[in-house]
């Protein structure tokens, strides 16, 4: 009787020990899995935010250096054309924003720039923000140069332009139009909203003065 009782207690203790080990394993796995999910979520949000910050900072920098020349020719035209579109606006302009990569090159500071949207080639729910830079300023602000995607998963890109004489913000600007002939906006407001396929969102708003030259 005593031996059987001792043997029974040993089996119970073993079962309890196994149960405790099982609980520890499940808890450890759940903790590791949860930590991995949190890390992946943080990484995804950080990448989305970084892409948005880089895009809006580049646009702010280039737009602040927009330029209109008084010496227009048939083959050298500087203009500023901003079109209000839904959900992403378009802008084409010339700016003194080109950075020379090599000291001995004959590159000018002038360049043509453009921002517009295209369907996302990665198959995302939203559009891609495209950027164009052409070092040769000619008669076509939408042709040539280097084109690359600044950001993907762009849900909204909105520009507003401050008209200094009218003291108001406007949604469009065209220096070929009589109301804007020969003048640049005094300032620009940029609103950029990104949203990935998982519903993560990153929104950015900035304003900057446009240099008068």
Task: Provide structural commentary.
By secondary structure, this protein is α+β, with helices and mostly antiparallel strands. It has one domain (58-209). It contains one helix and nine strands. It has one helix at 2-63, and strands spanning 80-83, 90-95, 111-119, 127-134, 146-163, 168-170, 173-174, 187-195, 201-209. The relative contact order is 0.15. Residues 1-5 have low confidence and may be disordered.
Keywords:
213 residues; alpha+beta; 9 strands; 29% helix; elongated; disordered N terminus
Structure summary:
This protein has 213 residues and is α+β, with helices and mostly antiparallel strands. It is built from 1 helix and 9 strands.
The number of domains is 1
- Let me know the largest β-sheet: 9 strands, antiparallel
Extended strand count? 9
Radius of gyration: 29 Å
- Structural class given helices, strands, pairing? alpha+beta
Q: In whole angstroms, how far apart are the ends?
A: 105 Å
Number of H/I helices: 1
- Poorly predicted segments: 1-5
What is the N-to-C succession of helices and strands?
HEEEEEEEEE
Average residue-wise pLDDT: 85
Percent of residues in helices: 25-40%
Tell me, briefly, the overall form.
elongated
Percentage of residues in strands: 25-35%
SSE inventory with pairings:
Layout: H1 2-63, E1 80-83, E2 90-95, E3 111-119, E4 127-134, E5 146-163, E6 168-170, E7 173-174, E8 187-195, E9 201-209
Antiparallel strand pairs: 1-2, 1-7, 2-3, 3-4, 4-5, 5-6, 5-8, 8-9
């Amino acid at each position: 009787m005593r031996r059987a009782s001792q043997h029974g207690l040993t089996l119970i203790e073993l079962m309890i020990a196994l149960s405790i080990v099982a609980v520890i394993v499940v808890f450890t796995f759940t903790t590791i899995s949860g930590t991995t999910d949190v890390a992946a979520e943080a990484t995804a949000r950080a990448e989305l935010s970084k892409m948005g910050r880089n895009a809006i900072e580049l646009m702010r920098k280039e737009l602040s250096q927009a330029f209109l020349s008084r010496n227009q020719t048939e083959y050298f035209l500087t203009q500023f054309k901003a079109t209000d579109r839904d959900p992403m606006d378009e802008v084409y302009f010339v700016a003194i924003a080109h950075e020379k990569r090599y000291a001995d090159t004959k590159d000018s500071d002038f360049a043509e720039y453009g921002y517009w949207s295209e369907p996302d080639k990665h198959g995302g729910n939203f559009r891609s923000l495209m950027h164009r830079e052409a070092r040769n300023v000619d008669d076509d602000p939408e042709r040539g140069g280097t084109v690359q995607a600044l950001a993907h998963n762009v849900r909204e890109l909105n520009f507003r332009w401050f008209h200094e004489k009218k003291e108001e913000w406007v949604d469009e600007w065209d220096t070929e139009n009589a109301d804007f002939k020969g003048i640049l906006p005094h300032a620009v407001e940029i609103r950029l909203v990104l949203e990935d396929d998982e519903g993560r969102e990153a929104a950015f708003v900035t304003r900057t003065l446009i240099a008068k030259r």
